[in-house]
Amino acid sequence: MPSRPSRPRLEDVAARARVSTASVSLVLRGRPGPSAATREAVLEAARDLGYRADRTASLLARRRTQLLGVTMDVRSTFHGELLEDLQAAADERGYDVVVSPLTRTRDERRAVESLLDFRCEALLLLGPRLPDAELAALAEEHHVVAIGRRARAAGVDVVRAADDVGVGLAVEHLVGLGHRDIAFVDGPRGPISTLRRQGYRHALKRLGLADAADVAAGGDDEESGVAAAESLRTREAPLRMPSAVVAFNDRVALGLLDRLRRDGLDVPGDVAVVGYDDSLVARLATVDLTSVSQAPEAMAVAAVEAATQRLDGGRTEAVDVVLEPHLVVRGTTAPRGDHATRGDGTREG
Amino acid sequence: MPSRPSRPRLEDVAARARVSTASVSLVLRGRPGPSAATREAVLEAARDLGYRADRTASLLARRRTQLLGVTMDVRSTFHGELLEDLQAAADERGYDVVVSPLTRTRDERRAVESLLDFRCEALLLLGPRLPDAELAALAEEHHVVAIGRRARAAGVDVVRAADDVGVGLAVEHLVGLGHRDIAFVDGPRGPISTLRRQGYRHALKRLGLADAADVAAGGDDEESGVAAAESLRTREAPLRMPSAVVAFNDRVALGLLDRLRRDGLDVPGDVAVVGYDDSLVARLATVDLTSVSQAPEAMAVAAVEAATQRLDGGRTEAVDVVLEPHLVVRGTTAPRGDHATRGDGTREG
DNA sequence: TCGTAATCTTAAAGCGCTTTAAATCGCCGC
DNA sequence: GCGGCGATTTAAAGCGCTTTAAGATTACGA
């Protein structure tokens, strides 16, 4: 039941403090000018009245909105986490965030439109799927930051993690544990998979294990993981069941884990598994998956930074920020020794 | 790189169409008045100029904002789903949604403040944790709808599912499959658990199995499920390992599943498991968990409906909408017969 | 004591759109 | 040919806040 007496306006505060609305405006926004006496009077009046500025009006009056628009997939917990960090980073810089969720009935284009209606000053797109050309077109009219995806679109700022390096870390970790037969379960067709696969190959080469390269078809979800597990276990002669697997992402790793364990294999005893994304599910005590973190906090900060540099710092050249991922070691990886001593030897070939 | 030539204003459209700004405003919002000729001229001019109304300005001018504010936990996929449906429902009624995420550094109060700053006309709170008193206070000044939680707060509209009925459905399903020893793994202390537990007890009574009531301590996450699985398997004499378990929610069910299977039990062969929420994870092919759905779409529609009824329908009495949940049968439940024929008999007592 | 600079304060002009109240235009009947 | 009426159109007054430019005060040095 909204209050009948409409909320107090700036004018009311001014009247009560016996000063002009200009002074009130200045004081309330902490701008220099008003004397200490005026400040106090205004603050007191505002407090008494329970005054709260009408953002709509102030946005209209000042040319700026100080709003950052974010598009995201609400169903993705990774995006959820990123959003948390974006909020925090924006807060610190005096910006507010408007989120525009993508849903079945609301594609990326629509979500962006909505953000523009709100007059957001910059668009932060989480894992945008818009074609590069469209991103570039958008960037001609607005500030846009693509997060988590490489983009060859003029004028678009990009903030992403070095996926190849990330996979490399995983491989090094496994080799360090004594593993030699390390398979990589691929992701869906696309630039991200390519990069991760490269990371895998290069790491093996670097470690003198180039010959052991073993890439299995995969995908980006649990089912792909299950399928990959099956194919790894039923392969023909020259190929062997690896002692460790690096999966395209955590979901795939999850499918792998599930299937391997149902088949009676012990993880990490018989097979070590590493995921990618360090998603919330990887952190669950029941999953406890070793995974590569894309450092969402750092990405968030970098993205907001990119936006504010354009807005307040006068930057006009697009930037491409590449962050170093890091490995989070948990319970699905262990020294290879374990395998030899308690594995059930369910290998082929 | 935002465009230099500032975006066209209403005035520009008016000039180009050779009519007044009033006419343009009327036409663009589809209000009655302008003649067909005027309409056409305006639409054409607007199209030519690529005109897009400045929401900020129009919000200020008209008294209404047509904005619904939603607070949610971004990490919850259930909230994510709900949000999708809320968006859709709001869209249909000509409202726009502003979402205010809860994060570590941004509690519910803060999130609500933010929504008020945006001048949202109604607050839709997803599973609010604010104490009833605070909800009631908020409701004195604003329209508030609590979603998914019972609230004894004056003036607050509530939209929730009949949890007791939901658990009842699960129990009936299991009994229909021939199960008799059906345990319930409880949730965390609170009204929701109480209601679900009641639903469990009442259903058993109704089916003449009151004596078989078997409530195990639980919680609201995977770990609680693991713990519950352990306790179910190691209990003393008179108690037996049940042939079916209804869990407080899907996460608990997941923990149960994981632990039971690692212990070599077959689900649903040895034990049938039912979750609650019909979350995305329950639907994963690798999980395929029978679960009770709270019908998020229906909740979303009801919530938006509640808000618009107050805003446009003139309703002033609070409503309490209780929706009927439904059971989604998947792969973790099967006739008890299965158990007898292929169970490994790992029971106690 | 007076002029001038420095410091505060404020009147007033918007920001871009909506809306009301009044003006305009046709058209009809007498 | 004129008064009148309904259908359109529009001038103008805001919505609540910011900001600029001018005005008021005070402070100082000469």
Automatic annotation (TrEMBL), chains A, B:
<feature type="domain" description="HTH lacI-type">
    <location>
        <begin position="8"/>
        <end position="62"/>
    </location>
</feature>
<protein>
    <submittedName>
        <fullName>LacI family transcriptional regulator</fullName>
    </submittedName>
</protein>
<dbReference type="InterPro" id="IPR046335">
    <property type="entry name" value="LacI/GalR-like_sensor"/>
</dbReference>
<keyword id="KW-0805">Transcription regulation</keyword>
<keyword id="KW-0804">Transcription</keyword>
<dbReference type="Pfam" id="PF13377">
    <property type="entry name" value="Peripla_BP_3"/>
</dbReference>
<dbReference type="InterPro" id="IPR028082">
    <property type="entry name" value="Peripla_BP_I"/>
</dbReference>
<keyword id="KW-0238">DNA-binding</keyword>
<dbReference type="Pfam" id="PF00356">
    <property type="entry name" value="LacI"/>
</dbReference>
<dbReference type="InterPro" id="IPR000843">
    <property type="entry name" value="HTH_LacI"/>
</dbReference>
<dbReference type="InterPro" id="IPR010982">
    <property type="entry name" value="Lambda_DNA-bd_dom_sf"/>
</dbReference>
